[in-house]
């Protein structure tokens, strides 16, 4: 694994981040860059690569935050990832932003049950419940985040209704969604954290097992941003249920 070089980037929320895994070591940069992602993301990529003393052509694969998040942010991340991957002929590894925050909770708090919620505006959140599972392979033991409640966009009341039917004792809360709406903030659903936005740093650990697993990487042509809200709206159209 020390010979693997992975580059990750994320612009799906207010955060803008880049991270590199090389020689078993990680380098990362992140900053808040609301509405200025396009100004910062490529210089941050250049800075991380320069710090490692490599070029993009020496990277094995490119991971990116495929959403959910803001429409503009997700589109920017997908577009930048596609352009970089095409230019350097790299395979691509899409990473869930909600899962990336769950993994941050594991790294920082040893959490194995995580509730992720990003404020989606319009009285909705991007939400999922995750359970950590250790998976052994020929390349080592990796952490897999199994969705107990699948990624979705819904209102706060629907979050509470779904959690009422699930076991989530000892849960850790990540994301901006919990503090954004009073009914969630007051529900005492689990341990609150300062993990409010996703980071490319935690996408590296999620990308690594996908790099080793056959069929888990895609070509730049196959990149698809995940908006969730678009999918829900489409399903509600007459005749599209």
From TrEMBL:
Signal peptide location: none
TM stretches of this protein: none
InterPro entries: ATPase_NBD, Gcp-like_dom, T6A_TsaB
Residue span(s) of domain Gcp-like: 32-183
Family listed: Belongs to the KAE1 / TsaD family. TsaB subfamily.
Protein name from the UniProt record: tRNA threonylcarbamoyladenosine biosynthesis protein TsaB
Organism listed in the record: Aggregatibacter aphrophilus (Haemophilus aphrophilus)
Name of encoding gene: tsaB
